[in-house]
Amino acid sequence: MPRTDELGSFNLRVDELLATKNKKPLFSVELWPPRTPASETKLTEALEILSKLHMDFVSITYGAGGSTRENTHELVMRLMKDYGIPPVAHLVTGAHKKLEIEIILERYRSSGVENLLALHGDPPLGATQDLQPGELAHAIELVRIAKFDYGLCVGVAVHPGGHPNSKSKQEDLCYQAEKLLLADYAITQFFYKPSEYHDLVQEMANRGVNKPIIPGIMAPTSFSTLNKMADLSGTVIPSDVYQRLARYASDPVGFQNEGTLVAIELAEQLLNNGAPGIHVFSKNQAATTVAIYEALGIF
Known about the structure:
alpha/beta; TIM Barrel; single chain; 46% helix; 9-stranded parallel β-sheet
């Protein structure tokens, strides 16, 4: 059950939120921990705005190769102590040895953190050694440890269009089903075709996996950012979305407005067809997140 931890924060587990919302969809946001004084200022400004929304939880990313380890932890604790918002801490297997991961998990548990998003992620920059026996090669191994050894609520990432490193779509679907069956819920990588989400949900159900899958929504803010994120994630941008945005290629404000409309329309279609909520990849930009939240008007 929900509980008040030693920090005085009302700390809810995502699985409890999904089970007790009485058919009302969840609204959640992803934030990036700051790397510079300027990004710290931007984050603080965004938090002051976003904290006025009814956010069910906020996930905090983990930099490539574990580069934001301490910043991630500090932001997780800040959400609990200063804002009373349930945080979901990202953690990656690729950045740490098993012992380091266990230390991080124990630190979260002892601090009252209940929620984790288990990811594979990237190895530390410059790493050249192969993974040694006993280390965590896959996210599913982190799910097992975090859930069964530390009692955390554990989410995983799933890819509606397929993971870019998978050998085949069927192999990818089998792995995603195995991972999600063990976890409590999933958050998708961003996408722009509603059918990709519904196909993924059906494919999981066909494999006997009916855990909640929360669609991840990203409002395009510029072509450079969209193309970079798509390349990193393997997401294919549908031609109709690309053409809509291309009309504003030389108009930054128009591009952002149209990108926000794309995200709102996608979120509406998903929620109208039964998605358990939406998770906004905010890139620490409050304005587009608020616009999506207000346009949907159901939270």
